[in-house]
Amino acid sequence: MSRRLTGAAAVLACAVLACGGLITLAGCGSHPATGTGTGPAPLTAPLSTSLVSAQGTWAVAVMGGPDAGNRFWQLFFRSAAGGRWSLVTPQGVADNGGLVAAGGGGYLVVGIRPSQKLAFSPLATSTDTGRNWTPGLLDAGLADMPGAIAVGPAGRTLALLQDGTIEAAPTAGSAAAGRWAPLATLKALAASAPGRACGLEGVTAVSFGPDENPMAAGSCARPGAAGVFTEAGGTWRSAGLALPAGGRVRVLGLTAIPGGNEALLAVSHPGGNSLFVAWRDGTRWTVSAPVAAAGVRALGFGPGGSAWLLPDRGRPETVAGAAGSAWRPLPPVPAGTQVLAPPGTGTLAAGSGGSYDALAVAGSRLTVWRLVRGAWAEVQQLTVPVQYGSSG
Amino acid sequence: MPGMNSGLNPSDPTLVAAFRSALLHQGAIALLMLAFLWLLWATARTWRPAASGGTGAGTAAAGAAEPRGRWLLRTGFGVLWIFDGILQAQPKMAGGLATQVIEPTAASSPRWVQHLVNWGGTVWSYHPVQAAAASVWIQVGIGVWLIVAVRGPWSRLAGAASVAWGLVVWVFGESFGGIFAPGLSWLTGAPGGVLFYVVAGALLALPEDVWRRPRSGRLLLAGLGAFLAGMALLQAWPGRGFWQGTVRDQAGHGHAGTLSGMVREMSATPQPHVLSALLAGFASFATRYAVGVNLVVVIALAVLGAVFLAGRPRLVRYAVWFGIVFCLADWVLVQDLGFLGGLGTDPNSMIPLILLFSAGYLTLVPEVASEMIGVNEAAEDDAEKSGDAADAQRRGRPRPEVLRGLGNTVASARARSVAAAGAVAVIVLGAAPMAAAAANRTADPILALAISGNSGRLDLPAPGFSLTDQDGRTVSLASLRGKVVLMTFLDPVCTTDCPIIAQEFKQAGQMLGAQAGLVELVAVVANPTYRSTAFTRAFDRQEGLTTVPNWRYLTGSLSQLGEVWRHYGVTVQNLPAGAMSAHNDLAVIIDPAGRIRQEMDADPGPGTSGTESSFSVLLSQYARQALRQS
Fold first, then answer.
1. How do residues B255-288 score in pLDDT, each as one tens digit?
2. How far is A135 from chain B (nearest CA, A)?
């Protein structure tokens, strides 16, 4: 992966979901997530997501049978130059507990969530768009959040654990060798000045901000406060975002945007389950108009910090473009759609809000639908050799 | 419920064969014991003829007939216990009782009941063969004891034994008869058929004089009357689904009412077509006329309860006949004879209830009860005594002084007392191994054998290897010479079998006790990708193996590992699409001389705590064998 790609590829799809039963998930395989337990309800998140890099687009979809032991997370890749989707799921480890992908620094890092009797998280790192993988180790349980891993431009890696601890590996090689060190615990972060100020209840995503500083996002008890923090020199500071809605805020996703900016997707409740996208240009936040959603089935970030989400019901599918763009409804997605895959930066300008691929799953068959002139057209089918019963 | 379910198929041929073998084995022992008792008794009577006509335990009330109410309870419940014992001998009982009877019964009960029942269920699932065989012999023994011990302390003790075992069955087998679960109904067997056995046993344990007082019969009937009145109230209680033939859920979907639903379910179980058709027909009738059916039940229970409470003999007589018909109808149409369909363990509550209120009536109205039973027994006693006297005249001669006391005791016993002693011996025959098994926290190796099959004994040279352990040290098979090596192949990022196998090895090491120092627990990595020592260490931490001194998790280069896999017949392959790396589960037992003595399929099967413990026991046994062979 080239350096040019690395800089542009610091877009990582993060999704964290919330709260109090007001936001519900379906169809994407959701799991209890990390938190202090003092909030209204455990956070849950859909792990289906997509990730855009300069090399192309990555998408995570859940395939297999209805039984949990037979649901395997699959990683697909489509090059930025267009072309077809291909299966690039790392081999050698069962991923039916969930698969979290993060890109940056020329690396794509995949974390395997613990499942069944496995209590720690094997990793797999690729520098050649998933053709070859190097095994790695996180000797702890990775949180079940799509934003549980972040990779910086220089290969520094962050991991959010199930207990809310953030661990860091200085290089991709360290991560592969299992050499991680704690960066912050949830307790310490909640006890810090910015944590106390927002009433931090749980960490939901990690990322890298400008100057490769680690970032963490969480959910806060104080109405209107979005828990976004940056770390420098061992001190955590608030990124200072307040949303117009008066309810509690859950940050659903956090991503770095090429050029040193960040974007986040947040939900606020009560007050109609309003979803927002917020962008920061280094100092100032721009917040999108709210969009109402009864529940979120899947969500992710596209080029330039654009965000997409598949509401569980209510409004039709919606996307928001880059800062200043409005939410834009898409035509209803085909049945079985688990993830929207925005185009890679190689084919479309960042934040153009252009075409999407909808990846629809039926058992072990993946159908790719492309949004062409306002309608979904089938462009590809893949049959994935799911090994039913191999981890049941 | 953890522990209760061994996860094995109740029809597993290994389990069924082991159960049959245990029954035959223990049956032969029972016959030998009975023959020995008989010989002892006959010999003693030959030696001590003068005492043979004496007063044994069974002649306590010589001259007076056994009250007929007591006779009915004693023989009736004796026959029921024997019948239940025979039902316990069903081939699938060993593997199926915990999962198909105990667990479903407890499932709807409160958590504390489930916890309590889980203990008994776990004992059963850890020792299915001993438990099932014990149940057979204990129940047959109690039944025989009740029947043969007519009078006196032996008979009363039989009643007490019935109480004790009945309570065990009621608590652990029936989850307190479901009295703490929703849906309690007299129609379906509340408060548990075995509770009636307990009541009957308690009544039989009372002094015989109690049975000669009509007041006792009145009290018994009054108790039953209060019970039936309470059941009538419960049956009439609204909102329990008995008044509706069809119940609608929140989504508006119709479901069968409580009674019709249960009967329909029962009719679908395997049984003779005539019976299932009868039940299906009644289910349809109960669906259509739910109110009428439940009204009849409520009124019948209330009337029966009222009459029994009043205790007026003339009315009670009619009520008893009506009760018999009513209970039989329920037994056939609702309870499906109690033991049909699935693993039936008893005929449910109606027959015991009939026996109880009939005994109450016979005690209430003693003049109705003929003295035939007592007369016959008296005649039997007379014949026995005269025969004894003749024997005494024919064979009497002096015996050594030291045996006089014992000889007198044995020789003076009556045939029924000897038979009762035989029945007690049969109970002990079943209970002793069960008690020993219950005290043993490890599971029977039969579970592991049922999963892996019997491992043949081998004597082959173990292929050598040189690999790296979790601490980075080089370990070769040659360096382990002089110790038994329990060896297996584990994937450090495995999500299913490997952690279970590792725990089995760990437990096997613990079971070896002092001999553990002579045994090495060795695992070789079985994953071509995730195979570094970082992973073996992570696996060890996950499984709590870091403090096991003789645990070695070995890895190496792909070529080194591939060679070991090939030599030991292990196939390892990465599978696509997020699946686990595939490999066969194998355990090899290598003796101190470096020779393979056993090779077993280490697939842990369902991986329950029972099977895990069972594999550990088997592995430790194999290790001890290898130590002995060295």
1. 788 888 888 888 888 888 888 899 999 999 998 9
2. 6
Per the listing, tokens 């000669």 go with B212
Q: Indicate whether B204 and B63 sit together in one domain.
A: yes
| Partner B contacted by A63 (CB < 8 A) | yes
CB distance A54 to A346 below 8 Å: yes
pLDDT digit string, tens, across residues B172-223: 988 998 888 887 899 989 899 999 999 999 999 999 999 999 999 999 999 9
DSSP character string of A161-209: BTTS-EEEESSHHHHHHT--EEEE-HHHHHHSHHHHHHTEEEEEEEEE-
Domain interval for residue B231 = 222-342+355-362
Rounded to whole angstroms, the maximal C-alpha distance in chain A is 52
Three-state secondary-structure class, residue A352: coil
Indicate if B164 and B306 belong to the same structural domain. no
* Residue B538 touches partner A, C-beta closer than 8 Å: yes
Rounded Cα gap, residues A372 and B277, in angstroms: 62
In terms of domains, do B197 and B285 share one? no
Q: Which helix (H) or strand (E) holds A257?
A: strand A248-257
Cα dist from A175 to A122, A150, B378, B534, B611, whole Å: 10, 12, 92, 11, 37
Which amino acid is present at B564? Answer: V
Residue range(s) defining the domain that contains residue A336: 3-383
How far apart CA B561 and CA B565 sit, in angstroms, is 6
Q: How far is residue A1 from each of residues A6, A125, A135, A341, B226, measured CA to CA in Å?
A: 7, 12, 18, 20, 84
How far is residue A138's CA from residue B102's CA, in Å, rounded to a whole number?
A: 43
Query: Which tens digits make up the pLDDT trace of B105-136?
Result: 888 889 999 999 998 889 999 999 999 999 99
d(C-alpha A302, C-alpha A350), whole Å: 8
Q: What is the CATH number of the domain that holds A40?
A: 2.130.10.10
Q: Among B574, B578, B582, select the one facing A95 at the smallest CB separation.
A: B578
ipTM, interface predicted TM-score of the complex: 0.86
Q: Do B493 and A99 touch (CB under 8 A)?
A: no
B482 contacts: CB under 8 Å, gap ≥ 6? B592
CA A283 from centre of chain: 23
Structure tokens, B216: 């006792």
* The pLDDT value given to residue A269: 58
- Yes or no, beta carbons of A122 and B493 under 8 Å apart: yes
Q: What domain count does chain B have?
A: 3
Return the percentage of chain B with pLDDT > 70, whole number. 89
